[in-house]
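Researcher: Please translate sequence to structure tokens.
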Amino acid sequence: MELNADRERIENKLEIGKEMLYLSRNEVEETGLTVDDILDLTHSALVAHGNKDYEMPAKVGVHPFKEVFFHAMPAYVPSKKAVGIKWVECYPSNPEKYNLPQTTGLLIINDVLTGCPVAVMDATWVTSMRTPAVTVLAAAELHPEAETFGMFGCGIQGIEHCRYIVKTLKKLKKIYVYDIKEKAADLLIQAVQPQIDIEIIRGKDPETVTKSCEVLSSATVILLETLAVVKDEWVSRGQTILPCDLNTFWDPITSKRADKYIVDSAEEHELFAETGYFPAGLPEIACETGEVLAGNNPGRETENELIVCSNIGMAVCDVVVGKEIFIRALENGLGRKLPL
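Model: Translation complete:
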């Protein structure tokens, strides 16, 4: 769709430059995007990134407390006519201390031609949906024959990873889950098992889960200090590891000795390394996730390669998904128009 045509369909519903659309979390969800929709949108964003059809500086942040972060995440994806910024924060203690989500935030979508903001929306749902989409799309490219998947961390991200993975790993037979809180693992199984045909098993411990699965992911906490919960000696050749929590959960030796260390954004990983998130040094980067999905890099080349693919979240995915949410909300009369 040409840029002017894209803008015209917005102008029919919104007076650009004089008003914008505000969407609460419930209204974002009411736009009706399905898992398949999110996978398609995220795939297009990753392919655009892999083809260098984007502008996205590495996320910058502030840290009021040692264990928390705020990130500013702007991006422009020309092929999707999507430009905007996400302001997101992570407070790991929120659920226990304040009965609030660990991650909250706002996403702003702008008009490409004038720069005027056209939408402000809750970013919590967008973040929770596009994050597992990246993991499972990468898993399908790097390990399509996998029959077992392991998930460390059974919160919102863990739940969505288990819902999404069945969409892309077509030969999947078992899912193993583990959380330091057994109740969290049980709640995940209760929530997801009725929705999928693949058996979900609560893992006995991290070692058992690691040794039982061909593909593994983790969505726990992001800390400067490496926890190394999963020991390197538990990891075997031929496995695919897809952390969403940087260098925190896994023994850093594993990423260092992997045959390929793939990342969603090399620039962002280098920035994180500069700020201390890789105390042992950033592993040598083989390529970016989007380059694999775009067909510009083969990713896995032999079945016995150990591959670590670190995806920490990119704004290109947020603005592409956010733009679609905005358009659907306009078309369905959702949200509230606020004066600028």
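Researcher: Any highlights?
Model: Residues 85 and 122 are 12 Å apart (CA to CA).
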